[in-house]
Design goal:
The protein is 36% helix and 10% strand. By secondary structure, it is of the alpha+beta class. A five-stranded antiparallel β-sheet has the order 2-1-3-5-4. The longest helix is centred in the last third of the chain and has 18 residues. The structure holds adenosine-5'-diphosphate, magnesium ion and zinc ion (ZN).
């Protein structure tokens, strides 16, 4: 017996019962789909309008009508409740991207209590890997909830010329600011250099407020390419964009403390947050080991996490 395809729990074949509840409204689902990526992509290619969801990775929509297996879907509607991503079509270890995203999302949720888009690791009929995520932008009654990413939020607010995590944080409700600090520390430590403005969104709540959405598109990008430590500057005034790769965004816990202070998070909460990440390195490494990644990808992932933790624990730099 292996790991659950949802939560990675030991001694499970396919999905454990709590993941069936969470992901599939209690129905039994086999982790192997009965269609291939080509069955989705050929439909996409025949669509003149293309797809509206952004990003560079290939992706499609699938739905799960009650009591039936998953089926490819053409359009986004209340019946295409899932997004599916096949493996990368280029870069290093491309077939590891679904397991990478799945493991990283589960770490965010299980080790760091970050609210995520629920997700699973599956395979197509031909055995190639797939990442699926359940859409969070529909409520239980099937109503579409407004979602707006920060590329458009900040663009709409003309006064923002710089686009840094500080700009995003200041825009957020104080209720979301600790979450945002945690999300940034998480992505720094697990090696995600892809948290650009399109990967951070606001989502309409039941009482029609716009609050930080569950996190999505989390992965260790370093497995697949040479990437920045983060995607954007933390601070408005330290423009690091032109620094060489490796130097750029070399933050440590002291920078995250400063970041939290600027967002007016209370000091004891910042300290607690910083420490809680510091304590979890071994659990992160253990979760990588339990994941669906290959041995080679696990080694790369763990090596990168160890390096990031070293940066995180660096002593305070004196800026001259
Ligand atoms: N579970 C989800 N529910 C609703 N929208 C989602 C979900 N996952 C991703 N999205 C939306 O789809 C877009 C593309 O997904 P993402 O995972 O970021 O793919 P890519 O790797 O191509 O950037 C995101 O920017 C986000 O707006
Ligand atoms: Mg994205
Ligand atoms: Zn499970």
């Amino acid at each position: 017996m292996a790991q659950c395809n949802g939560c990675l729990k030991d001694n499970t074949t396919g999905f454990c019962s709590s993941c069936e509840t969470l992901l599939f409204n209690r129905s039994k689902v086999r982790p192997q789909l009965n269609f291939n990526w080509e069955d989705i992509s050929k439909r996409i290619d025949s669509q003149p309008m293309g797809f509206s969801i952004s990003g560079v990775q290939r992706k499609g929509f699938i739905g799960k009508p009650r009591g039936v297996e998953f089926v490819p879907k053409m359009t986004v509607d209340e019946k295409s409740q899932y997004i599916i991503k096949p493996m990368l079509s280029r870069f290093n270890l491309p077939d590891q991207s679904p397991a990478n995203e799945h493991a990283t999302m589960q770490m965010a949720k299980q080790l760091f209590n970050i609210r995520i888009a629920e997700c699973a690791f599956m395979t197509f009929a031909n055995g190639t890997p797939a990442y699926i995520t359940k859409r969070f932008d529909y409520d239980v009654s099937g109503k579409k909830l407004n979602q707006e990413d920060f590329a458009s939020v900040l663009q709409a607010a003309h006064k923002y010329t710089s686009k840094t995590y500080q700009d995003v944080g200041e825009w957020l409700s104080p209720l979301n600011r600790v979450d945002f600090l945690r999300i940034l520390i998480f992505n720094f430590l697990i090696g995600n250099g892809d948290v650009h403005l399109k990967n951070i969104s606001l989502l309409e709540t039941a009482d029609r407020d716009m609050m930080l959405s569950p996190s999505y598109d989390l992965m260790n990008t370093k497995i697949h390419l040479t990437d920045n430590l983060l995607a954007l500057n933390l601070f408005k005034e330290f423009e690091q964009t032109r620094l060489p790769l490796g130097e750029k965004y070399r933050y440590s816990c002291h920078d995250f403390i400063e970041f939290g202070t600027r967002l007016k998070i209370r000091e004891p909460i910042i300290t607690k947050t910083i420490d809680s990440f510091d304590k979890k390195e071994s659990q992160v490494l253990a979760m990588v080991d339990k994941s669906f990644l290959s041995e080679e990808a696990k080694e790369l992932y763990k090596k990168n996490v160890a390096e990031n933790y070293n940066l995180y624990r660096q002593t305070k730099r004196v800026i001259t």
